[in-house]
Write a structure and sequence with these properties.
The protein starts with 12 loop residues before the first helix and ends in a 5-residue tail after the last helix. With 74 residues, it is mainly α. Helix content is 72%, strand content 0%. The chain has one domain. It is elongated, with a radius of gyration of 17 Å. The chain contains two helices and no strands.
């Protein structure tokens, strides 16, 4: 038995869809927050909207990650 077992994913379609959505939400939220940070000095109103969108996407991704970690394979 190896130290790290290979994870081949799930066969449950609902959980597979969730796994495909989680990481784009997290990375997209982080990218949007960084973009807002860079545009803050030039366009403050646009940066505020980007901060809000990025924070919401990141929060949704993290909460979906936590929810998915508690789900059982059927």
């Amino acid at each position: 038995m190896s130290f790290f077992d290979k994870y081949n994913g799930t066969s449950n379609a609902r959980l597979l869809r969730m796994e495909r959505v989680i990481w784009p939400l997290i990375y997209g939220g982080l990218l949007t927050l960084v973009l807002a940070w860079f545009t803050e000095n030039t366009q403050a109103t646009s940066a505020t909207g980007l901060y809000a969108v990025g924070a919401v996407a990141l929060a949704m991704g993290i909460s979906a990650f936590v929810w998915r970690s508690r789900q059982k394979e059927e």
